[in-house]
Amino acid sequence: MRYDLVIFDNDGVLVDSEPLANRVLAGYLTELGHPTSYTDALRDYMGGSVRRVHDIIRERTGRHLPADFDSILHSRTFDAFRAELQPVNGVSELLRGLAADALPYCLASSSSHERIRVALQHTGLLEYFDEQRIFSSEDVRRGKPAPDLFQHAAGSMGVPPERCVVIEDSPLGVQAAIAAGMEVYGYVAMTPPDRLAQASGVFSDMSALPELLAG
After folding, report:
1. 158-206: pLDDT as tens digits
2. Class of 5-17+86-214 per CATH?
3. Extents of the domains making up the chain
4. Active-site annotation holder among 9, 16, 44, 148
5. Strand pairing partners for 183?
6. Are 151 and 159 contacting, i.e. CB atoms less than 8 angstroms apart?
7. Which of 11, 16, 44, 169 is catalytic?
8. Which residue, 64, 124, 167, 207, is most buried by CB atoms nearer than 10 A?
9. Its pTM surpasses 0.85
């Protein structure tokens, strides 16, 4: 293998949560008087933390979201996850293969620790991630596209950035990985490939990733 650590994004890479989460987000923002379509949510917020939602709404409107915005959004998102969330096709097999090859991996997500664990638990993927393998934007000051989260994950795992590869599905995540000095591959099952053009390569099926990692 060419790398000493594989860092996975969670939403849209390990769990098929982006359609559910962005549908909930678009609906809630619209309900609050900030008309947002599903396409708008994907374009503006996919791959970012909830702090990004607050920042963009404030910049665009001069208004603050309600104090209970985060808790209500998370509650609605968790309800959707429990009803519909599935793992990304082929992810379980991929993680088993990495474990068999003794290739270290971890997860670094813009989501909260609670949301990450709800998603992994519901999809049966939590067995692949002990506490030392899970990193959230809550752990750092700046979320994606800043490099902080990926740098924090690599440092915690004891691997220099240049020996890490990131698996991402959002432009924000790709930008963050590059800023962190890491190679990055874009998963384009849902994201148009041209939006991840800065990545070292793209793939649309998890079965293709081992070959990319092997170089």
Report:
1. 999 999 999 999 999 999 999 999 999 999 998 999 999 999 999 999 9
2. alpha beta
3. 5-17+86-214, 18-84
4. 9
5. 165
6. no
7. 11
8. 167
9. yes
